[in-house]
Amino acid sequence: MNGPWAPDFFCREAQRLGYVARSAFKLLQIQTQFKLIGAGASVLDLGCAPGAWLQVACRSLGPLEKGGTVVGIDLKKMNVPSHHCDSRVKTICADVMNLRKDQARAFSPQGVGFSVVLSDMCPTISGITTKDAALSCELGKRALSLAVGKASNKISSQFLDSFEDDASDNGVLRRGGDIVIKLLESEDTEAFAKFCKPRFRKVSWLRPKATRSCSKEIYLICQGLR
After folding, report:
1. Locate the Ribosomal RNA methyltransferase FtsJ domain: which residues (predicted)?
2. pLDDT under 50 in the chain at which residues?
3. pTM value?
4. What is the CB neighbour count within 10 angstroms for residue 60?
């Protein structure tokens, strides 16, 4: 098989190392550079299928006795991958676009929220660049809305207004927590950084090495929710 989606080094390495998808290497690089997930962390993985980020997140928690939890949510009903995951990982079949913040928060330990939110959600690619970017933007907004809630400090929250689906001011991300959001680059992506900069200690962009050359994917990494 030839072409931009042909198996490459990262596909072969994923198979060799027991990861269910090459996307594992994207989170591995993010984790290496930003060290978001530590021992005892509570992680929410939005759009978790096929499970590669669940695997990396669980490994990042350290030994089982260190504790921590990883909760994956996806439209597809899926089993926890058998490699690199343990009893700290569970999956829930749900539509993130219709999930209320209080429902998502209830999945966290003691219902107090998560220390890390990951969103590798991506729309079904149509090949129409503007359409795909717009759908990606909607998914990214949804992840942000769940994570930060109304977050009305410092600048207007109009960016997320259409996603305020319940009465709670609080999102599922705990104070000091981090979020990673995949987006397809467009003229709208900078709006995400503008929204996040007053709300987080540090905001960064990353295009992981495992991203295919033909892809417009880019990751927004926000650290330290204020």
Report:
1. 19-224
2. 1-3, 5, 152-156
3. 0.91
4. 20
Sheet holding 69-74, edge to edge: 89-93, 69-74, 42-46, 114-119, 173-184, 217-225, 200-206
CB atoms within 10 A of CB 9: 11
The yes-or-no answer on residue 182 being catalytic is yes
Query: In the CATH scheme, what is the code of domain 23-225?
Result: 3.40.50.150
Give pLDDT tens digits for 183-199: 999 988 999 999 999 99
Catalytic residue among 150, 182, 202, 209: 182
